[in-house]
Amino acid sequence: MNPTIAPAVEAPIKDYRAPLRFWHWASALLISLQLITILFQKVIVKSKSAVTELQSSGKAVSVPQARELAHIISERIWAWHIYFGWALVALWVFRLGLQLTGPSELHFSARLMEILRRYRLAPPADKGKAGKILFAKTTYALFYIFITLMVATGLIMIYEDVSWLKSFQDLAKEVHEFTMYLIIGFIVLHVVGVVWAETKEDHGLVSRMVGGEAPKAKA
User: Fold this and answer.
1) Which string of DSSP letters, residue by residue, matches 171-184?
2) pLDDT tens-place string over residues 109-128
3) What is the helix (H) or strand (E) element at residue 150, kind and residue range?
4) What is the pLDDT of residues 29-50, one digit of tens each?
């Protein structure tokens, strides 16, 4: 192995430490809750549909009353969305802390560079497998970028009363909503990839992400 290419300590491909497992499942839960609030806001709770449904039920509810009720429900759902958003901000800071502290070979950037190095050095027969691993890790890097965009634009939208942020509100909202679809796409791709890996090449992957990796036996 070329010593000018190989790192002093070879970085592991995957990281199953307890803090990272906690971040993974906590993020999955919070993102799911965020998407549920959006589903309620955009599909289930709408002023126009609320008016129609209340009137068709035969109840003596005026149009202004129905719209006010829908508005109150919408505001409460939005409040929950913000609460979950703040929790996601905390997790983002937590993940950044994991990246900046601890053994350098366990940092995501180090593991990504190690995967890229292995791909470059892989013989033609192993290029396909190395490429799949590199693709998977690259999608994780994109996911971190998406989460960073969501956190940043979400904070801009929350602090809409700050004078110097007002001019960024429309752009922040557009980026926030577009990034949501990118995250949904990543989730679908991630779930499909995990199921494929679990059944084909990496049995026990989900178990390791839940309980961690078994300690290696000493030689």
Assistant:
1) HHHHHHHHHHHHHH
2) 999 999 999 999 999 888 88
3) helix 127-158
4) 999 999 999 888 777 666 555 5
